[in-house]
């Protein structure tokens, strides 16, 4: 198939937008409210339903969601928060924003989700919270994490940016921790350009997130207009982390397609898994039986000896073939900022560091055709053969 000389580019992830999404945005552009309008509440209601929570608060991006959660949880200088190294840096950064210390716990070698026993080993009398990341779309082992949190009086937070629409023991991602962060960046399941949300069952906590989103001001412009008053009070420090009605309208429309997106991603994953079960040295990450995997990413580990090709050469071969493979992620504790600020170093998380040498993310997005999927599989096979 790769021999047919077609020129394609298949990215690792991509948004799916249709005419309904475009019409929803246009409708807002013709309306009175571009921000702090009715679409914000509508998107929040729809998200809370998806997350299985009482409340959802939309914010300007996933990183803002994590920042808001950490702030509203009262994380402060002197606190330690246990985080995972195999992720985008936001979940460690939100701890750093508040002057607290991120402490990296190693991951499970089969799933690359945070390893509950490693979390337990990192707890000190300064530990305040745990931030789990549902890596690639697979929910972490929340029963084990919640037990550790309860035993030690810690707050459990879910960075669910990969996993909206996934479940753990039939419970939706969003309802698995005290608070959950979502991202609506175009590579994620629900795209609003930029966007994020906090899901929680705790109304007081949601109110603190709303305050933080709006400069620490107790009423927003719309509420003041409705009450005919100019009066407002700033009761705390906050940011402008609001999401516009334009983005929320897109979010409402996109969220309706989430079940389709997850189904299609799971279908693609099943085809990949079948194919790679017959290819020596290319092993998809394991999936625990108690989850429904949301497949933000499809990650395989390359065993150079058995595959006859290492991750770097496979990466280059696939990129040369027009396949936008990627590596998720460089372990966060190895970034210069973390080494220089917190003294983290190679050896701190050996499982994560070893996995980082072997992982590669193959294209995974719902608009991939069956033919695209076969093209990727054939390209992997070709890269192995031409090496062997
Ligand atoms: C995308 C992502 C974020 C950050 O979301 P933004 O909307 O890009 O700020 C945080 N955590 C994880 C795991 C992510 O994948």
Describe this structure in words.
- The protein has helices at 19-29, 38-51, 62-72, 90-97, 116-122, 142-152, 203-213, 221-227, 245-255, 258-276, 304-307, 311-320, 336-342, 350-356, 370-387, and strands at residues 55-59, 80-83, 101-104, 127-133, 155-159, 167-168, 171-172, 179-183, 196-200, 282-284, 291-292, 298-302, 359-362.
- With 388 residues, the protein is of the alpha/beta class.
- The strands form three sheets. The chain has a seven-stranded mixed sheet. Strands 7-6-11 form a three-stranded antiparallel sheet, with no helix packed on it. A three-stranded antiparallel sheet has the order 10-12-13.
- The model has no long low-confidence stretch (mean pLDDT 95).
- Bound molecules: pyridoxal-5'-phosphate.
- Residues 61-63, 87-88, 90-91, 133, 159, 161-162, 183, 185, 196 line the site of pyridoxal-5'-phosphate.
Give a quick summary of the entry.
The protein is 40% helix and 14% strand.
């Amino acid at each position: 198939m790769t021999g047919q000389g077609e020129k394609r580019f298949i990215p690792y992830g991509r948004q799916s937008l249709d005419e309904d999404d475009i019409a929803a945005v246009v409708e807002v552009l013709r309306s009175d409210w571009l921000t702090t309008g009715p679409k914000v509440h509508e998107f929040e209601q729809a998200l809370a339903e998806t997350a299985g929570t009482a409340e959802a608060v939309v914010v300007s991006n996933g990183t803002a969601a994590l920042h808001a959660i950490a702030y509203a949880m009262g994380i402060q200088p002197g606190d330690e928060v246990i985080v995972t190294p195999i992720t985008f840096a936001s979940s460690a950064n939100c701890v750093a924003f508040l002057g607290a210390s991120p402490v990296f716990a190693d991951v499970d070698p089969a799933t690359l989700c945070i390893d509950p026993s490693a979390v337990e080993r990192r707890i000190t009398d300064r530990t305040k919270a745990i931030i789990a990341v549902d890596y690639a779309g697979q929910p972490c082992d929340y029963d084990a994490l919640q037990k550790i949190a309860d035993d030690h009086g810690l707050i459990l937070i879910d960075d669910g940016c990969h996993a909206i629409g996934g479940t753990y023991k039939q419970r939706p991602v969003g309802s698995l921790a005290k608070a959950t962060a979502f991202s609506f960046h175009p590579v994620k399941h629900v795209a609003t350009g930029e966007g994020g949300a906090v899901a929680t069952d705790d109304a007081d906590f949601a109110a603190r997130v709303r305050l933080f989103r709006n400069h620490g001001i107790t009423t927003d412009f719309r509420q003041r207009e409705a009450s005919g008053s100019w009066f407002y009070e700033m009761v705390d420090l906050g940011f402008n982390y609001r999401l516009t009605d334009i983005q929320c309208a897109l979010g409402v429309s996109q969220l309706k397609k989430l079940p389709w997106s997850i189904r299609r991603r799971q279908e693609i994953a099943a085809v990949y898994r079948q194919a790679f079960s017959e290819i020596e040295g290319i092993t998809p990450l394991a999936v625990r039986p108690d989850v429904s995997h949301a497949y933000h990413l499809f990650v395989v580990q390359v065993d150079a000896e058995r595959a006859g090709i290492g991750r770097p050469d496979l990466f280059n071969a696939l990129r040369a073939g027009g396949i936008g493979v990627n590596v998720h992620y460089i372990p966060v504790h190895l970034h210069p900022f973390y080494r220089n600020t917190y003294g983290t170093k190679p050896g701190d998380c050996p499982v994560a560091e070893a996995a980082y040498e072997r992982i590669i993310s193959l294209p995974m997005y719902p608009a991939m055709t069956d033919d695209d999927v076969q093209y990727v599989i054939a390209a992997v096979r070709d890269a192995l053969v031409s090496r062997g």
